[in-house]
Each structure stands twice: as C-alpha cells, then as structure tokens.
Amino acid sequence: MPPRAKDFDRNVFINCPFDNDYLPLARALVFAVLACGFEPRIATERSDSGEVRVEKIRELIQSSRLSIHDLSRMEPLGPADLPRFNMPFELGLDHGCRHWGGAHLKGKQCLILEKERFRFQRVLSDISGSDIRPHGNDPEELVQQVRSWLRVVGKKSSLPPAGRVWENLSFFRSHLEIMLDREGYSAKEIAALEMTEYIDFVKSWMPTSPDSPG
User: Over 70: is that where the pLDDT of 53 sits?
Assistant: First the structure.
C-alpha cells in the first residue's frame, strides 16, 4: 500500500498540454489552482533524463488527492500529425490509481475539462456519464470551472470568487513582462518561459501584491 504523500490534500495533478496554442489556458489553470490555495503538480516540475516519464506521472498522480484533466487538445496539431493520446492516457492512470491504490487513494477526485461538452464521446465513449465541464477555449471560463470545482471538493471553508481570481490573473499578466524585464530576462527568454518558472513567479507575487487573493 503506497504511503500518504506530504501535502496530499493540497496537491492538484494537472494533465494538460503545454504547447503555445494552449499556453493562455495552461497559465490560467495553474493560476486559478494557486489562487485557491492549492499546489499544482505538473510533469515538467522534475527534469531528469534518466527518469521514465510514465513513472514520474504515476508518482505525481499518487501524491495528489485532486487532479484536473483537460481533454480539449486530443486532435492532431497539423494535417500530417496523429491524435494526441497523452491526456486520456493520464486520465486512465488516475482512474486506475483511485480504484486499485491504497485506501486513502479511493478518496481521490478529478475534474475533466473539454472544449465542448460532448465532443469527447467521439473518441472516448468509456467516460460517458462523467461530469465533463466545457471551457470553450476561453481562459476566463476555465478559471470559473476550476474555482467552482475546487470549492466543492477542496475541503476549504471559503475561496475567492472566480471574478476576483480572473481580475488578479489579468493584473498579474499585465505586470509579468515588467517583472521579468526587471529580473534581466531577454524577450526570447520571456517567450520561452517554462511553466515551472511561471508558477514560481505567481507564488512570489501572490503573498505580496495588495491586489492578490490573499
């Protein structure tokens, strides 16, 4: 039986793409998780070429009571590309962990996001009947869905309203480039900012900004 991980109740495993097209949604997603007082866990937080990726993902899922899976980018990136199955595969790992893991893992909960409510049924009919929440590729709607879900499952007495989270994200986003410029980042480095580094900047800003959700 796997031991209960430190910060298990606060950890939120995030299963989503991190390509340039999805980046505004990914940043909104991790910001909302942090603004609600939870800890986003992503596969790129550990960079070890000797570590098998699926084992790293399995460990992150096992150490997180909550998971968010966005299936909106299963389609191929281009005409010559194949569909992307990483996101549904990781959702399957999460379901398996809940049902065949230790006793404390049976209480795991997940949020499944999509672009349109019933689009997934064309390729993943096994999860028909699940509560799939659509975001329509709109970062503000995604923030609303994530905040609403965390309010229900997060074991917290109160969370900032979604409107305030979105306002703070907009404020942070407008100042991020200034913050990075002050730190000496070049325009090229700003464009290529890794998600783990973005998360660190959000964390460093939230406790100190007078407008941040404290």
Answer: yes
